[in-house]
Design a protein that fits this description.
single chain; 230 residues; alpha+beta; Aminopeptidase; 8-stranded mixed beta sheet; 5 helices; globular; disordered C terminus; T_hemolysin; Thermostable hemolysin
Length: 230
């Protein structure tokens, strides 16, 4: 099997955004940012945060954030919407005999200050997960997030409707979130990386750092955001 090709990157405006996983000190900041975003957009009171949180920063100002949960380490929040374990449902839709649970990861807690940050955020996310050896991505997506994947030319399959009744009394904390028709989605990360590398339509443009980026923390990636190619 050939290794997936890396996406083509173009250097654009400065200052760059910086993508990094939150350390212990930053986690409180990201949780507050995510909770505030859900409150503003959906009137939701968010209390569930993923085990790992990542942020997109510019001049040390947080611009976007998301969280990750490894299916091999814990039950996924989105499995509440499913009739079967995520690896079984993914295998059914992907048309493969079986999927290893430890190859599945859930993305959640996604918040951006502006819609234009969604596409570069998705590109950086996929690159990070490929680097970590993951193969299958799952997430619960509103129409806006599904459209962002579509504009990047990426394939994501519907796995189930996100039915708030599955949450019991907890559904009342989600405000208007379920009026945005969220769906549980899944996709092949390696296929997505190949599509990005082949110049997917309207590809987001990011700039990776040099191999040794002076002054950057371990795990940081520099990102410059511009208008995507038409």
């Amino acid at each position: 099997m050939h290794e997936p090709r890396s996406p083509r990157f173009t250097s654009v405006a400065r200052p760059p955004h910086v993508w990094r996983e939150a350390d212990i000190a930053e986690r409180t900041t990201l949780e507050a940012f995510i909770a505030d975003g859900y409150a503003r957009q959906h009137g939701a009171t968010l209390t569930h945060f993923q085990p790992r949180l990542f942020g997109l920063w510019c001049d040390e100002e947080l611009q976007a954030a998301l969280g990750l949960c490894h299916a091999g380490h814990a039950s996924l929040f989105l499995e509440r919407y499913l009739e079967a374990p995520i690896e079984r449902r993914l295998a059914e839709v992907a048309g493969v005999p079986c999927i290893a649970r430890h190859q599945v990861i859930e993305v959640g807690n996604l918040v951006t200050l502006r819609p234009g940050l969604l596409r570069p955020l998705i590109v950086m996310l996929i690159g990070t997960l490929i680097d970590e050896g993951m193969q299958w991505l799952t997430f619960t997506a509103t129409i806006q997030v599904r459209n962002a994947f579509h504009r990047l030319g990426l394939e994501a399959w519907p796995l189930a409707e996100a039915d708030p009744a599955r949450l019991g009394q907890q559904r009342h904390a989600w405000g208007r979130y379920y009026t945005h028709a969220p769906q549980v989605m899944g996709g092949d990360l390696r296929r997505a990386w190949q599509l990005l590398g082949s110049g997917a339509p309207n590809q987001a443009i990011v700039t990776p750092p040099p191999a040794r980026w002076t002054g950057m923390r371990s795990g940081e990636t520099s990102v410059s955001i511009a208008q995507a190619r038409g």
